[in-house]
Amino acid sequence: MEKGKLVVSYDKETDVAYLSFGEPKNSVTEELDDYVLVRRDPTTHDVRGVTITNFSDYFKRKKEMKVEILERKSRSRKK
């Protein structure tokens, strides 16, 4: 994750919340459940952000956001 910067935005029209760590970059998306998507760096697998679909419904049902995002090992890290 890019340290020191969290960008949060909400699209009321589509009811989607976006949480991004740093500036937007190319990412791969992993679905955690019916609402939550995690965006990762395709090489390092570091988390770049989280997307919550049906945001209003998500918080009506869950009341808070508790999502376990497991660290993934990079397949090949250059030194």
Main sheet makeup: 5 strands, antiparallel
Distance between the termini: 18 Å
The average pLDDT score comes to: 82
Q: From the alpha-carbon coordinates, what is the Rg to the nearest angstrom?
A: 13 Å
Task: Return the string of H and E elements.
Answer: EEEEEH
Spatial arrangement of strands, main beta sheet: 1-2-5-4-3
What is the molecular shape? globular
How much strand content do the residues show?
Answer: 25-35%
Residue share in helix: 10-25%
Find the structural class using helix and strand composition. mainly beta
Low-confidence stretches: 75-79
Number of discrete helical segments: 1
How many structural domains does the protein architecture include?
1
Number of β-strand runs: 5
Task: Please explain how this structure is put together.
The structure is a single chain. The chain is mainly beta and 79 residues long. The chain has one domain (6-62). It is 10% helix and 34% strand. It contains 1 helix and 5 strands; from the N terminus they run E-E-E-E-E-H. It has one helix at residues 55-62, and strands at 6-11, 16-21, 28-31, 36-40, 47-52. The protein has a 5-stranded antiparallel β-sheet with strand order 1-2-5-4-3. Strand 1 and strand 2 form a beta hairpin. The longest helix is centred in the last third of the chain and has 8 residues, at 55-62. It is globular, with a radius of gyration of 13 Å.
